[in-house]
Amino acid sequence: MARKTLNKKNLVELGGDVLAELLLEAVKGDAARQRRVRMVLSADQSPQDAAADVRKRFASIRRSGSFISWKTQKKFAKELIDLITLIEMRIGSDSPDLAFELLWDLLHLAPGIHERTDDSNGLIGDVMNDAMEAIARISPRITKDPIELAEMIFDALRDNGYGEFDHVVPALAEPLGRSGLERLKALAEEMCAAPLTEAQLEIYDFVSDPERQKELARDRRDHTAKMILQDVADLQGDVDAWLARYTAEQLTYHTIAPDAAGRLLAAGRAEEALQVVENALDRDTHDSTWFDPPELDEAHFACLEALGREEDLRRALWARFERCLCPDALRRLLKRLPDFDDVEAEDRAREVVLSFTPIEAGLAFCLSWPDLALAAQLVLSRSAEIDGDAYEILTPAAEALSSAHPLAAVLVWRSMIEFALERARSSRYGHAARHLAACAEADAAIGDYAGHPEHHVFIQDLQNAHGRKSAFWGRVTVS
Fold first, then answer.
1. String of DSSP letters for 200-228
2. What is the full DSSP assignment across 365-429?
3. What is the DSSP string of 437-467?
4. What are the mean pLDDT values of the chain's consecutive 10-residue runs (479 residues total)?
5. Does residue 200 contact residue 220 with C-beta atoms inside 8 Å?
6. In sequence order, which residues have a C-beta less than 8 Å from that of residue 464 and are 6 or more positions away?
7. What pLDDT, on a 0 to 100 scale, did the predictor assign at position 286?
8. Which of 85, 257, 323, 395 has a 20 to 30 A CA-CA distance from 384?
9. Distance, CA of 82 to CA of 79 (rounded, Å)
């Protein structure tokens, strides 16, 4: 049987002739696979031969005007990913500059491709990100003139409508070097200082107010320039230039403040980093019950640790745990406490979990910690609050509880069964039937239902309330 397994060893043993016949049969009628095989054959001859075939395919994609449907989009994206792999591995291994040119050309295909397909699922965007990551991997071996490279990057970023070149500066940092980064910086600064061009204004022809038109065009241009300047500042270790891109208010956003704090910490400016974080933490959004900014909290912890503010760090770790039942924050806190204090803190944490709303968050914590006894206590004390729709948490919780805490498991299963039937979620009837079977299996291990209906009573209640739901009962065997 082992000889029949599809693996590389067994296939190699078939020999080249057999494999060639199988491959020809496999690619028959599949143009994309045939192109891939031809390109691999070309790459075996020379990087230049492979590059010529890749360019032919790029030209075909560029000329095409047909819409790429959702049905064909995945296959097309797979072909592009295969091209990226071939370019990086087979061409880039011997000719990195040639591979870079091809990957650069592929990125320039992005606007035309986006115009021909709906990329709401981000599939094409992910392909372009893969191409940029491939450029980053081969960049240390690129020998292009830094000044010329900087000008190429600048031109690409000025016409970056779909964000395909967003990460190009850090990707090409090494071949850019000091001179390339300085040239890029100068170009961005010149762009900000220059008058608006007709082309820049034409983008906003639909705006009737000329002043508003200029404002929008200037914002678009300056956004690109500032993005370039920020990337350059980052690579040059110029924290102040990086910060200068943002207003004081923007530096309080939880999406920006952690990055700002991280850069200030790396520069040895912990007090300033802490001030940035505290300003962000003071925003009203942090008081929201649903708001959970892990990156901001992590930056806060890092600042306090860098400043040696141990008590403040412990309070911050506890606050994060108390707010969102973060198990990592609690673990880190307990490790920082002396003996016996950690035991007391863990007891306090259990009380927080037992009263936390929603109860599903408490169950998620118990599974992660793990503490199944606490999970059972939580279920038994607050079973009426369980949202049977939260099956992503409830299903693993019931399975984990079933062995040592069968009653708690049954109550969790029941919540999902009742939700499916009460809401007539027919797509879940199969799961509900399996949960009911699990309840029946657990019944023998439950000596006391602690005031909850016994299994046969629960079955009768379900039949009384939902007896007409034949799509469910048809899946259930009731003894």
1. HHHTTTT---HHHHHHHHHHHHHHHHHHH
2. HHHHTT-HHHHHHHHHHHGGG--TT-HHHHHHHHHHHTTT-HHHHHHHHHHHHHHHHHTT-GGGH
3. HHHHHHHTT-S--TTSPPHHHHHHHHHHHHT
4. 70 78 77 72 76 92 92 91 92 95 97 93 95 97 97 94 94 97 96 89 90 92 90 93 90 94 96 96 59 87 97 96 95 94 95 97 96 98 96 97 97 98 95 96 95 96 94 83
5. yes
6. none
7. 47
8. 323
9. 5
Count of all residues that appear for the chain in the document: 479
- Amino acid 372: pLDDT: 97
Residue 249: HSE in the Cβ half-sphere, 13 Å Cα cutoff: 1
Block residue for tokens 């031809």: 38
> From CA 72, how far away is CA 38, in angstroms rounded?
21
- Give dist(CA 362, CA 354) in Å, integer: 7
Q: Convert the pLDDT of each residue in 259-292 to its tens digit.
A: 999 999 999 999 999 999 999 998 755 444 445 7
Torsion, Cα of 291, 295, 301, 306 (10° steps): -150
Q: Which of 397, 476, 401, 398 is nearest to 437 (CA)?
A: 476
Q: Residue 409 is encoded by which pair of tokens?
A: 């498991």
Q: Give the Cα separation of 230 and 227 in Å (integer).
A: 5
User: Which amino acid makes up residue 61?
Assistant: I
What is the b/e burial string over 336-374, where b = at least 16 CB atoms within 10 angstroms of the residue's CB? beeeeeeeebeeebbebbeebeebbebbbbbbebebbeb
Place of tokens 């920006």: 256
Q: What's this model's pTM, rounded to 2 decimal places?
A: 0.71
Cα 9–Cα 15–Cα 17 angle in degrees, nearest 5: 145
Count the Cβ atoms, other than its own, within 10 Å of residue 199.
10
**Any residues with CB less than 8 A from the CB of 198 and at least 6 apart, and which?**
none
DSSP state of 253: S
| Separation in Å, CA 3 to CA 8, 11, 232, 289, 365 | 11, 9, 56, 58, 47
CA 326 from centre of chain: 19
Nearest residue to 433 via CA among 383, 388, 474: 474
> Residue 38: which of 54, 25, 26, 22 has the closest Cα?
54
479, 380, 471, 375: which is closest to 432 by C-alpha?
Answer: 471
